[in-house]
Amino acid sequence: MCTLEKRGRVLILTLTGSGEHRLGPDLISSLRSALATARSDRTAAALVTVGEGRFFSNGLDLAWAQNSSEGITTLVSLVKPLIADLISLPMPTVAAVTGHAAAAGMMLALAHDYVYMRGDRGVLYMSELDIGLPFPDYFMALMRAKITDPRALRDMALGAKKINAIEGKERGIVDKVFESASDVMPEAVKMGEQLAGRNWDRGVYASIRMSMYPDLCKSVGLPQESDEEAEKHFASKL
């Protein structure tokens, strides 16, 4: 499913195996458990997520949904708190996208603070229009938060366009592009180490991130600080 290892103050979350890393109940549970461990590690200061093989994640486990009485609605509801876990995680996060990231898999990547991607292969792709599925509200909230070019958002949501790393960087979706998969992970870890070295207050980092994306936080059920709570939090740091 996934593993979590620690290198100094950087945590490496790896979706293991050579499959498509489709988000079914077992993988979602494994990822959430790893993120809970990351959250509880008071010495951890950054997280890097990577998928082994050709895929970062190819989206929801549609085969599981078709063979289950619970169906796709269950998967959609299970991914929502996974996104909330990442948005509220008290440390910087980097997605090392070394393969395709589609639909819910792209959402998983975009829920990180930084997206690093290989340039020789792999695409970002919202496949819902092509397969006849509507976007969950929180998918669109996440896309609006992270894809700020309205034409890029249109092309991905209403055109089901597959965007490679170079175009993703040009459109502000991807932060850095590297020649091959072997280059992405070391650079993502290096970025994690640089961010960890800033020694930021974990709670403050999470609070600022959540305040950047109020609509997204609301859509995934994250509580919003009132002005009074924010003032108390600010005063406690003085």
From TrEMBL:
One of its GO terms (molecular function) is delta(3)-delta(2)-enoyl-CoA isomerase activity. The keyword Cell division does not apply. Pathway: Lipid metabolism; fatty acid beta-oxidation. InterPro entries: ClpP/crotonase-like_dom_sf (IPR029045), Enoyl-CoA_hydra/iso (IPR001753). Its EC number is 5.3.3.8. GO terms for biological process: fatty acid beta-oxidation. GO terms for cellular component: peroxisome. Keywords: Isomerase, Lipid metabolism. CDD domains: crotonase-like. Pfam families: ECH_1. It catalyses: a (3E)-enoyl-CoA = a 4-saturated (2E)-enoyl-CoA; a (3Z)-enoyl-CoA = a 4-saturated (2E)-enoyl-CoA. It is an enzyme of class 5 (isomerase). Belongs to the enoyl-CoA hydratase/isomerase family. This is Delta(3)-Delta(2)-enoyl-CoA isomerase. It comes from Carex littledalei.
